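Bug #77: duplicate submission created two jobs. Keeping one. Sequence:
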Amino acid sequence: MKRPASPDGSTLSPPPVKRKVESTTTSKAVATFFKPASQREPERLTWRIVDHSLIVGRSSDPSQPSRQLQRPVKVAAFDLDDTIIAPTGKIRFNRNAASWKWWDASVPGRLKQLHEDGYLVVIISNQGSISLKDNAKSLQKDSLSLKNFKDQLTSILRQLNCPVSIYAATGNDKYRKPRTGMWEQLKDEHDLDEENAIDMENSFYVGDAAGREQTDQRRKDHATSDRDLAANIGIKFQTPEEFFLGLETEPYLHSFEPREILESALSSQQPKTPFTKQHNQELVIFCGSPGAGKSSFYWKVLKPQGYERVNQDILKTRDKCIKVARQLLGAGSSVVVDNTNRDREARKYWVDVARDTKVPIRCIYFNASARLCEHNDVVRAHNSSVNPENRTILPPIAFRSFAQSFVEPKLDEGFQDITTVSFQFEGTDAERELWSKYWVSKFST
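Kept job's structure:
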């Protein structure tokens, strides 16, 4: 039988008061709710490139309301490889979504807890193997190495499931650890530039590049860049073993301590003019590593005494240097050869020039160590205030090559005298502070 009409004339069945209310929850949302965390959709992750060099990523969980960090902000910073993650295969830096595992099972829990405790959790990592050039062959915006890096980080953060900021330096510039460019970028992006915005006492950095020697359980650390970065910033440093496993702090003594070297140089009583002209005309050659301070010495000490300068960085070849030096000597000028002149063979060219032109030849030997010279070079290249000639950074092989082939100059080569000049520094307080920081991630020697 046909159901009788309702009093309001409606023929709906069942009556409106018993009608089923449609749910606004989608089937996809229900399925996501019951998925394990490892299978859920990744959290929101955005990427950008700074200065064609620095990769910046930021993740957040869209299911969680954004939280204002309490000031001063506590920063928990970590290296990536061999600190948060470890490789799953034999190729250490193979990058893809499945080529990693947690460095220790405790890592994700500790990172999440730091977030819950109000820390800003960040990853600060050197990634020199990543190319930021477009991959024209595959018509992708990202190079393959950048794509693989993003895929891996997306996989990591999917499992971690808490907000993280990522900074990855791809070049040998101000962003590369132990230089503080990534830390400065972090402060800028999170509006932490003002004084006391960061709780420096409770902030810390964890990384495996700590300069430790090999043990039965661990290979030798490849560098000191993580330990040095923390020192440059002024925050506590721990190794992964100390932070995640609770092992005791290992004693460590820097083999190269810039601040102590600078203090020693400043305290030594050296004459303001350690070299003076003795003849109306003479040829002076420098002998020393790149970065030993030869050019600075010329401008501060010899140029005021009237010496002309010959430099192979400018003239490009030894033959051109010899030609110009002969012309200057022929015109009656005294000449300084501002080159490395690393061995007897290289110096003999200039002894012959002095003999041919009948002028006395003298030698100034700069005895700074290869490590000190490499430090000088990097400081100079990255700070315009101490780089009047706009020198670019030299490759590490330049210092290693010089050290391996260097032969100390001797009087029997034909020199009238040899003056030894140790490391000297002249600069403002700000320049001294710059020089006192750690700048080289891994010394070549």
